[in-house]
Amino acid sequence: MNNLSTSLEALLSSISGIKIELTSEKLLGVLQFIGTLALIYIFFKILKALSKKFLFKKMSMQTQHIIKKAIDYSAFVTIVLTVFHRLGIDVSGLLGAAGIAGIAIGFAAQTSVSNVISGLFVITERAFKIGDTIEIEDIIGTVQSINLLSVALKTFDSQYVRVPNETIIKANLINYSHFPFRRIKTELSVSYDTDLRRAETILIDTAKKNRFVVADPAPSILWTAFDSSGISCALFAWTSVQDYGSARNSLFIDIDERLKKEGIEIPFNQLVVQMEDDIK
C-alpha cells in the first residue's frame, strides 16, 4: 500500500512538472513574440524619426509624403509576416495564392489598377506637389495629398475633392503655383472722348503704385477693341502667386478710385431707340 501511494505521488509530481514546464515555454514564447513586435514597431518609429530629422529638410512635401507611406507599408508587411511565421503559416504558399487572387481581382477592378499605374506616372512626373493650387476639369483647389489611387484637393470653399489619378493623366491640368509670379488681367473700357495716351499713363502708374504688384515684369496696357459704348483695353500686372487674390482685388479698387479722381469715364452699354414717327 505504501509502495502504491509512493508511485502515485511520483506520477502526480511528474505530470505537474510537465504542465509547469509547458506553461513556462508558452509564456516565454508569447513574451518573445510580443518583444519581437515591439522591436519592429520601435525600429520603424526610429526610422521615421531619423528620416524626418535628416532627410525631410531637403525634400519636397510630396517626397516626404511618399517616404512616410513607404515606411508605414513596410512596417505593416513586416508585422503581418512575423505573425504568419509565429502561427506556422507557409508564407510562400500564401504569396502564391495571393498572386492568383491578385490577377483575378485585377481583371475585376481594372479601373483601380489603371488609377495605380496613373498614380505612378503622377508621382514620377512631378507636375505638381503638395501645397500647389491646381485646376482640373473646372475644379480648383490646393493639393492635400498624392496617393496611388487619387489626389486629394481642398477647394477655396473648404470642400474635400478626390480626383482619380486616371482623370489627372487624361485631362488638361493647370498648376497655378508652378512659377513664382502670376499675371493679373484687368479688363475695362473708357469713353470715346478719353485721351488714350493719358489714360494709359494713369493706368500703368496706378498698377506700379499698388503694393502687391512687382516691378519686373512691368505693368502694360493692350487696347483691344472699339466697342459700341467705348474703347476696351486690358491692364496686365504681375504679382507673387501667394498674393494673387489680394492683388487682384486691391488693383481693381485702385483703378476705380484713380479713374474717378482723374475724371476718366468708364462707359456703360447704351441703346438708342428711334421711333418711326421721328424718322418721318
Automatic annotation (TrEMBL):
<keyword id="KW-0472">Membrane</keyword>
<dbReference type="Pfam" id="PF21082">
    <property type="entry name" value="MS_channel_3rd"/>
</dbReference>
<dbReference type="InterPro" id="IPR011066">
    <property type="entry name" value="MscS_channel_C_sf"/>
</dbReference>
<comment type="similarity">
    <text>Belongs to the MscS (TC 1.A.23) family.</text>
</comment>
<dbReference type="InterPro" id="IPR045275">
    <property type="entry name" value="MscS_archaea/bacteria_type"/>
</dbReference>
<dbReference type="InterPro" id="IPR011014">
    <property type="entry name" value="MscS_channel_TM-2"/>
</dbReference>
<feature type="domain" description="Mechanosensitive ion channel MscS">
    <location>
        <begin position="111"/>
        <end position="178"/>
    </location>
</feature>
<protein>
    <recommendedName>
        <fullName>Small-conductance mechanosensitive channel</fullName>
    </recommendedName>
</protein>
<feature type="transmembrane region" description="Helical">
    <location>
        <begin position="70"/>
        <end position="89"/>
    </location>
</feature>
<dbReference type="Pfam" id="PF00924">
    <property type="entry name" value="MS_channel_2nd"/>
</dbReference>
<feature type="domain" description="Mechanosensitive ion channel transmembrane helices 2/3">
    <location>
        <begin position="73"/>
        <end position="110"/>
    </location>
</feature>
<dbReference type="GO" id="GO:0005886">
    <property type="term" value="C:plasma membrane"/>
</dbReference>
<dbReference type="Pfam" id="PF21088">
    <property type="entry name" value="MS_channel_1st"/>
</dbReference>
<feature type="transmembrane region" description="Helical">
    <location>
        <begin position="27"/>
        <end position="50"/>
    </location>
</feature>
<feature type="domain" description="Mechanosensitive ion channel MscS C-terminal">
    <location>
        <begin position="184"/>
        <end position="266"/>
    </location>
</feature>
<dbReference type="InterPro" id="IPR049278">
    <property type="entry name" value="MS_channel_C"/>
</dbReference>
<dbReference type="GO" id="GO:0008381">
    <property type="term" value="F:mechanosensitive monoatomic ion channel activity"/>
</dbReference>
<keyword id="KW-1003">Cell membrane</keyword>
<feature type="transmembrane region" description="Helical">
    <location>
        <begin position="95"/>
        <end position="123"/>
    </location>
</feature>
<dbReference type="InterPro" id="IPR023408">
    <property type="entry name" value="MscS_beta-dom_sf"/>
</dbReference>
<keyword id="KW-0812">Transmembrane</keyword>
<keyword id="KW-1133">Transmembrane helix</keyword>
<dbReference type="InterPro" id="IPR006686">
    <property type="entry name" value="MscS_channel_CS"/>
</dbReference>
<dbReference type="InterPro" id="IPR006685">
    <property type="entry name" value="MscS_channel_2nd"/>
</dbReference>
<dbReference type="InterPro" id="IPR010920">
    <property type="entry name" value="LSM_dom_sf"/>
</dbReference>
<dbReference type="InterPro" id="IPR049142">
    <property type="entry name" value="MS_channel_1st"/>
</dbReference>
